[in-house]
Amino acid sequence: MARRAWILVPAVAFIALLTFGLLRSGGAPKIGDMAPEFTADRLNGGGTLSLGDLRGRPVLLNFWASWCGPCEDEAPMLRNAHERFGNQVHFVGVDIRDARGEAREFVRRYGLDYEHVRDERLQIYDDYGLTGQPETFLIDANGRIVQHISGPLLSENDLVLLLDGLLTRG
Fold first, then answer.
1. Phi and psi dihedrals of 4, rounded to 5?
2. Three-class DSSP category at 154
3. Cα–Cα 20 to 30 A to 5, which of 21, 28, 37, 129?
């Protein structure tokens, strides 16, 4: 009986903690939901950026880290998309789980010439129900989520199609 307790008690505790974590986070917001609001420090140290301040134009919100291989792969696609759509769509990068210097170097190396914020306390990460990085959310001009890409963007052509669709919605 004691041997069973040694196995059963930790298993029950693990399941309880897992259930609590899943219920607390609530998962990712769904398509059609309002994008969770945030205000975060800009990566370059130049004040803060609030998502709500970007209303009126669609937003591409990309979560990344400098040490993330798939983030490196998609960085050139995001740079090119920003060059093409940056006057119509706000691009915002959210750096997570990273040192500020390494994050700044990543932005410089890949020429990511759009807004980036730091999520040092992982509050934005939690609010968006992320499971890793990269992840990307497309948000319409009214602040509603229209697309969630969990994982890396697959191709530049797919990204262009997603942004064209976002602009069609307004």
1. -65, -40
2. coil
3. 21
